[in-house]
């Protein structure tokens, strides 16, 4: 189960390298597609929850790093207005 990094470009132009324990994020995001902030948080929640479920199915425990990453994204998202957009710049295997 290869872990992935995905680079988030926030509305202010700043970037974060985020973590997923699974390739499942590739099914949820399109590179350089503008996501409304609300949609981005919703999609990220689904993607990281599914990734953590995959870890649980394989190893018998959930991925705390996926939950930590989701918490960080949600905290960061609160700094922006709901109508602003976020893009995923890149998704790569670690």
From TrEMBL:
Record keywords, A-Z: Plasmid
Stored InterPro entries: CHP04042_MSMEG0570
Protein's name in the database: MSMEG_0570 family nitrogen starvation response protein
Lineage summary: Bacteria, Pseudomonadati, Pseudomonadota, Gammaproteobacteria, Enterobacterales
């Amino acid at each position: 189960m290869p872990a992935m990094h995905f680079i988030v470009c926030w509305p202010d132009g700043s970037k974060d390298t985020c973590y997923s324990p699974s390739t499942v994020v590739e099914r949820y995001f399109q590179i350089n597609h503008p996501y409304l902030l609300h949609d981005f948080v919703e999609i990220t929640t689904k993607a990281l929850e599914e990734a953590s479920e995959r870890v649980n199915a394989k190893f018998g425990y959930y991925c705390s790093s996926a939950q930590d990453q989701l918490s960080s994204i949600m905290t960061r998202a609160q700094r922006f207005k709901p109508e602003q957009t976020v893009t995923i710049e890149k998704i790569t295997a670690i």
